[in-house]
Amino acid sequence: MNTQVEMSNMENFFNPSAVVVIGASNADFNLGATICKILKEDIAYPGQVFAVNRGGEAVHGAQGFKSLRDIEDPVDLAVIITPAAVVPGFVRDCGEKGIRNIVIESSGFSEQGDVGQRLQAEINESARHHRMRIIGPNCLGILDNHNRFCCLYGANQLVRKTMKKPGTVSYVIQSGGVGGLVVERLMEDLLGVNKMVCIGNKSDVDESDFIDYFDTDNTKVIGLYLENVQHGNKLMAAARRTKKPILAFKSGRSEAGSAAAMSHTAGMANNDAVFEGACRQAGIIRLQSAEELHSLPKMFTEMPLLPGKRIAVFTNSGAFGSIGADLLAETDLVMAGFSGETREKLSRLPGVFNAENPVDIGPALPQIYLQIYDILLSDNNVDGLLHIVGMWRDYVADVMSELTELCRRHRKPAALFSFNAMARVQAARADKNLPLFSTLEEAVRALVVSHQQFRYLNKKETVS
Amino acid sequence: MNTQVEMSNMENFFNPSAVVVIGASNADFNLGATICKILKEDIAYPGQVFAVNRGGEAVHGAQGFKSLRDIEDPVDLAVIITPAAVVPGFVRDCGEKGIRNIVIESSGFSEQGDVGQRLQAEINESARHHRMRIIGPNCLGILDNHNRFCCLYGANQLVRKTMKKPGTVSYVIQSGGVGGLVVERLMEDLLGVNKMVCIGNKSDVDESDFIDYFDTDNTKVIGLYLENVQHGNKLMAAARRTKKPILAFKSGRSEAGSAAAMSHTAGMANNDAVFEGACRQAGIIRLQSAEELHSLPKMFTEMPLLPGKRIAVFTNSGAFGSIGADLLAETDLVMAGFSGETREKLSRLPGVFNAENPVDIGPALPQIYLQIYDILLSDNNVDGLLHIVGMWRDYVADVMSELTELCRRHRKPAALFSFNAMARVQAARADKNLPLFSTLEEAVRALVVSHQQFRYLNKKETVS
Fold first, then answer.
1. Which residues lie below 8 Å from residue A25, measured CB to CB, with a gap of 6+?
2. Hey, of B187, B264, B288, B334, which one would you mutate to test binding to chain A, going by the most A CBs within 10 A of its CB?
3. What pTM does this model have?
4. Which of A193, B52, B244, B380 could form a disulfide with B22 if both were Cys (CB 3.0 to 4.6 A apart)?
């Protein structure tokens, strides 16, 4: 594989200088029109936009043509959103015009039986012949918040909002619905989306190609939602090439679930145990829910990796100390046993109810919090913190802010949970840039996956 | 047990006509003062409030006395929030004045070793002698949103807010922190709190007494957070007396967790398997997280109980149909197999991608949604719905509103999840009174616990 050529080819999906939307018109409910609108009106995409439709009419300011052949300017990306039957013809036209990157958003291919499969075969033939790279078919397309490019249809309002908060997490998503969930909920969380690709049937470009691409760009964490894996070895190889954390959620674990996935994006059911094994070997962190796609990345961007299993629990609610200990007992992490020095220092501090793990404090001043953090993070028996503190005073958010600094200095992470209203949690994320988790279960999971990534990278370095 | 006497005694905890706060003063950081303030200034409690302190000074408008003996009016509830050492003396004074209901919020009793246990023994002696009922010690007290009574210390802001939304869920909580989580997050959810009691060390009145009491009042769902169970048979008997759903979360499942709980509220560690068995036999629904205390009750107040195991999944995202099927496969519920008639009717509707279970639709008009609901709920092979629909248009919230009506008519429940931002979900709850769950996992759990309650009540009726 000539990686350089491949990568420049991939770049055109995210940062094209001219794009044509084939099938965009001014008819009612035309989906292609929503893409012209987003590019020309909603997000100020800096490149050229053309529309191809029967009448050759302009669409939301995108210059209109009856045929690709009539466009004189060079075009580096085509988005096709027409009935399935005419897609193969347009793909050939693209090849002849020299367009090497195509997103086919139309459905009606392998996910819909024999006729669809024949259409798919025709497209594959053209793609091979012209060395084109294709995303889709049966997909929602691409969002790039940094390059300000987007060809997701019908998502204009959402995209306008999310572009205001470009981030460092990039996603490959085999479903529009899951993509919507991730983007909407991430906006209420700490981070923003960098790039998101909805790959649908993935007849050509798949999750592995994007893992390779995201390894080269400004992405910090890679999220995957998969319904099937067609090329397991390719996925494992790509995953092994990157040191960036890859978080993957896969549906179709059960028989009924995989039957449903089959009718959705046409993939063969995968044996779940095989996928599980592949993830373990290639250092892919397998997620337990779609929610984890947006909730967990902040642990990687805001905190050092968890270098060991021994966790100190710190709380201002005795109950949550106990619940936190219960949750840790269900993982491969353990409650840290403090050094004598730590216990002695803690017991001398006012407001400390329990100088053992979990450390439980009553109403206390900010400097007491900071002293405790320093004591705990300095203890060689402690690898990281589970921090369960209700924001009963405004300064609690400030001390958590200082805690994140301390964590970076000590190279030990803290997973933060506050037992407050979500509105308050969201405000603390926005105002103080705090990686606060929404539930205690999420915070514990964050420690687990952080240590999983640490172990994987460590082993990798030892081996290589 | 003379239940009538006991109940009228319990009523004084929630609806006293005169209350004295022993230990409330105008000193800095005085906790009793926050209780006087809440009653006199924040929530317009209609009864009389007195304060007892060394100087006999008035506190936030509560008339002050040096001693209980100086209060001439009758008092039906005393709240004691003083250092532990002087609590037994005040309890005796209460007995002599004829006060039969006491809340001891002070800590420093059985949870803190020998000295504390001796103080506790003195209190128990007075309580027996004067037939007093005691909540606590080491507790946060009582909140009653309907009677507008509250003696939680330091929670003024929160209580002012929650009183605006009195509800039908009543809680017994062995921790202030968990109580805070439940109250704050419930405010962002559909329901409101009816009553909440934080019972601390529960030296006298315990969760079982409140289950009996909540069985007689306007409570619809009972929530428990427990760190220990001291009287297992009493709890089982009380649970068996009510038909109201009881949702219980218990910490101290693990060794480390139960050690932490011990230092918090002084209870002996319980064998987790024993508690599990007791719950099963007495129809107590055991929760998997503290979050479920606020997320699950709406399934009981807004929907009929799930009468069988066969679930129809309905979605406008193929991916979530598959994920929903996966989640159901992990429960004792099953994917319904539709009747031929249902499949035929569904396949005739425009916009239906999949007429099998999960039913997957594309962009469709409201009347199509309603037709599908009617078809699915009318199928004798379907006991309930898992409804996973993104609110891509405003009318989706309206059709969900009509769905809840249809559910009541068909006596089959739907668990609703929308893959949108939480702000949007919260708005739909508030504006349309929709019992929307925050995650798909919660929605599936709601179906599971709904059927659990159905089976329990059914068995009960068969036996009796």
1. A32, A33, A51, A53, A54, A55, A57, A59
2. B264
3. 0.94
4. B52
